[in-house]
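Most newcomers find our protein records easier to grasp once they have seen one. Sequence and backbone structure share a record, each on its own labelled line. Nothing more is needed to start thinking about how sequence determines fold. As an example, a complete record with its sequence and its structure tokens follows.
=====
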Amino acid sequence: MIEKFGRPKVVKRTPEEIAANKASYMQIVASFAMEGHEPDDFGKVVTMERIRGELTLEQEKLILIEALPEETARINAKIARLHELGLSWKDL
């Protein structure tokens, strides 16, 4: 992961747990993509933040329904910056 995109951890996870959860999520996204239902970048970035322990499940849910406008803006800015750098959610 690019360190500049990291946030403080609010949920303790081991590097092994993070790697396993990230791999599982990538497989899920690939399966959905094959069906033509791949999540958008917003959802993928938010989920990756939860997987890395940067968000709680409750925070993730609130951000996904755009109930936290400042977090919505932060995620959109993060996505734009990733694209500027030629990166994707997978690089998180």
About this structure: The chain has four helices and no strands.
